[in-house]
Design goal:
Homodimer. This is Redox-sensing transcriptional repressor Rex. Its main location: cytoplasm. The protein has 252 residues and is an alpha/beta fold. The protein folds into two domains: 85 residues, Arc Repressor Mutant, subunit A; 109 residues, NAD(P)-binding Rossmann-like Domain (Rossmann fold), CATH 3.40.50. Helices cover 40% and strands 15% of the residues. It has a seven-stranded mixed β-sheet, with helices on both faces. Strands 2-3 form a two-stranded antiparallel ribbon. The protein binds nicotinamide-adenine-dinucleotide (NAD). The site of nicotinamide-adenine-dinucleotide (NAD) has 24 residues, from helix 5 and helix 8.
Length: 252
């Protein structure tokens, strides 16, 4: 769901295309579910279905990892979990700071899925003095005056911004100046960052607008057949792509 802006080329230094990198978390999620059920091996077709990806594309993606599976047996689930985790840099701990401990920031801080994937929330920061010292998700909220010190002391490279749009650029600049090189931005604004800093923007309202667009098209298809004297509009219903994904077309 994230829409990202990155200064990196479309292919990473190790030759893995960005599109493949973007699918690795989908495979990992499906593989983790299999691992939790103690499933030892999985075929490319089964895994592709579980991940919502076309199986030929999955095999191509895995070939970049040097993983080809065994004919008649499939892929070793545990080994693939390890390989993909390593490729995504998840075998190491990533300290994260969340700036803005309101509704969204507190919800994210309470989300157990970060820690289980190697993202440790090192600090929660907010500019509101009334929140300083208050415990959220088992952690005392720090004041943003301490942002630079906290980032440096904890070796934080990922910052999550969950504040209103107005202050987001300034917070982003401070995070970057303190050494943060990846930003997950929930604020409804476009952030500008220097070369070498990655920004991923999450906007659930955009996702909903895309769904609304598809809903509208579906409703249009169910509507009354056009009158005989009117030209029949071309068939414009969005089709599922080969990966089962719907092209994210926005109305003009
Ligand atoms: N991307 C999404 O899908 C999505 C979904 C929900 C909310 N949001 C956005 O997330 C942001 C937070 O939403 P919310 O509902 O949690 O708001 P909120 O008002 O509950 O919380 C915002 C918090 O940010 C703090 N804050 C404000 N300016 C700050 C600054 N400059 N430095 C540090 N802290 C600061 C406030 O003190 C407050 O605690 C908003 O921008 C909202 O639009 C995005």
């Amino acid at each position: 769901m994230a829409t990202g802006r990155t200064h990196r080329p479309a292919t990473r230094s190790r030759g893995i295309p960005e599109a493949t990198v973007a699918r690795l978390p989908l495979y990992l999620r499906a593989l983790t579910a299999l691992s939790e059920r103690s499933v030892p091996t999985v075929s490319s077709e089964e895994l592709a279905t579980a991940a919502g990806v076309n199986s030929a594309k999955l095999r191509k993606d895995f070939s970049y990892l040097g993983s080809y599976g065994t004919r008649g047996v499939g892929y070793d689930v545990e080994y693939l979990v390890y390989q993909i985790s390593r490729e995504l840099g998840l075998t190491q701990d990533w300290p994260v700071v969340i700036v803005g401990v309101g509704n969204l920031g507190a919800a994210l801080a309470n989300y157990g899925g970060f820690a289980s994937r190697g993202f440790r929330v090192a600090a929660l920061l907010d500019q509101d003095p009334a929140l300083t010292g208050r415990t959220v998700a088992g952690m005392a909220v720090s004041h943003t005056d301490d942002l630079e010190r906290i980032v440096t002391e904890n070796g934080v490279s990922i910052g999550v911004i969950t504040i209103p749009a107005g202050g987001a650029q300034q917070v982003c600049d401070r995070l970057v100046a303190a050494g943060v090189t990846s930003i997950l931005n929930f604020a409804p604004t476009v952030l500008s960052v220097p070369e070498g800093v990655d920004v991923r923007k999450v906007d659930l309202s955009i996702e909903l607008q895309i769904l609304a667009f598809h809903e509208q098209r579906k409703a249009g298809e169910d509507a009354v057949t056009p009158a005989a004297d009117l030209p029949v509009p071309p068939h414009t219903t969005p089709r599922k792509g080969p990966d089962g994904d719907v092209p994210a077309v926005m109305p003009a």
